Amino acid sequence: MSWFPTPVRLSRHCGRLVVVPLLVLGLVVYLLVPTTRIENALRQLYLEHGQYRHPQETLPPPVTPSAASGTLAKPADICALRFGNDYLRSFSRTATRYCDAGSSADLTCFSHKLDDKKTDSFCLGGPASLETTQKRIELDCTIRDWAEDDFSRNVPQFRDFPLYWYNTGPRAIFNQHIKLQRIAQAATTPSADAKGFSLLVQREDNHQNLWHSMMEIMSLTLSLDVLRTTINTKTGKPFFTHDDIKQSRVVFLDKLPNGPYFDLWSIFAGKLPMRIQDMSAMDLATTNILVPLPGSSNPFWQGDWLDLHCGESTLLKLFSNRVLDFYNEFDTTTAVQRPPTLTLIDRKEKRRLLNKELYFEALQKKHPEVNMRMVDYAALSLSEQIHISHTTDILIGVHGAGLTHGIFLPPNSTLVEIQPPSLKHKGFHNMAEALGHRYFTCHGSEHEIPQGNGDWQHDDVFLEETAFMEIMDKAIASMAG
Ligand SMILES: *[C@@H]1O[C@H](CO)[C@@H](O)[C@H](O)[C@H]1NC(C)=O
């Protein structure tokens, strides 16, 4: 039912003929050119065939907004509304036009209330043009007045869109980068010509932090997934289709340096990314714009301090597979076929595990059957980091963004989180459960910490050797079932 060809169809029937030689070619190219180019070469496969190698494209079939309102089977299922396809469906239901009848541009926004605090929204608009002196995007749109029906459907008014941290989210983007107004010459630009999407991205200042960045990038993919699963009643087709990927590009609105996750932003954009200050009017000419959900609206920020017990999440597994595919990680060997591999995250700043070298050595002596490594992820490219994680069965780290790598472990792995003495954070536990991984945690002991200042974010963590060995024994034993 998905508009993506199903993986079975591609690999079993027509696909293998094409895919295998291209993979071989890819490998040859890999040996000859720098890594960034190979990523592009293999990515062509996706752009051409609409198919990554991981089989899990688990998106629900597209629905029309009105029909969608009846499809929430269990409206009370908080887990599905946050982490399952009902999350996407909730947005689909609310597809609403925001411009008045005299506007030549469209602005359609989608919203979902995840908790009691905020209603999250994102918008799709077009055609858009670029005012080049101030690098401001313009849309011929006047926001219409809210009618009875809008109120009864609980659709938020444009002026009520909330603010998010680090100056992100639709409200911030509209305020700073988009001008909605009556544009005199706009009438001469036929809106049907709008081609491709400019994905307008305003990153958080925290763009070096893996967890923050993955939440942001995933929020962009969730926005696109809503568009892929919602029929535009005007065209009878989904708002965003696989063909649109080729025509789309990420447009960075922020002025932050590229950072380690720059490439991944283009996971669903076939054109090279640009910064808005480098764009010409032609680059934006008659494209549609997407003002996506911000990272902090991501449902995986929810319940950080609670055990959610929501089980596995189709949305997070889908994201995991997509990122693995983007970085060409399609290793299918399992722990059964190779020696179990354990990776200890070697933090070099803040919250370091005291005596880790000694403990690690002792652990290696005790479990010679396990392949072990201590890895300073921060010294590696994201692609290298993900390769390590995807060949790891047991990932261990002190609480911190490095544990985000749980997302890239192979299915059915084990995550071990060592928490600072009094911390009761549940985010990585919930994440592990969402991915179907086993999870173990323990707390550091109160101890005199060299250069400690009592702040858990800063201080190194001390764990007795026996406690360390105990939790490692459990984690290793869990691999055996
Ligand atoms: C997951 O791993 C455990 C422990 O090795 C094993 O008993 C179980 O069968 C595995 N489950 C799947 C679905 O592979």
UniProtKB/TrEMBL annotation:
The keyword Transmembrane applies. GO terms for molecular function: protein O-acetylglucosaminyltransferase activity. Signal peptide: none annotated. It holds the Pfam family Glyco_transf_61. The chain crosses the membrane at residues 14-33. Keywords: Endoplasmic reticulum, Glycoprotein, Glycosyltransferase, Membrane, Signal, Transferase, Transmembrane, Transmembrane helix. One of its GO terms (cellular component) is endoplasmic reticulum lumen. Residues 337-416 form the Glycosyltransferase 61 catalytic domain. It comes from the Eukaryota. It is an enzyme of class 2 (transferase). It catalyses: L-seryl-[protein] + UDP-N-acetyl-alpha-D-glucosamine = 3-O-(N-acetyl-beta-D-glucosaminyl)-L-seryl-[protein] + UDP + H(+); L-threonyl-[protein] + UDP-N-acetyl-alpha-D-glucosamine = 3-O-(N-acetyl-beta-D-glucosaminyl)-L-threonyl-[protein] + UDP + H(+). The keyword Lipoprotein does not apply. Its EC number is 2.4.1.255. This is EGF domain-specific O-linked N-acetylglucosamine transferase. It comes from Acrodontium crateriforme.
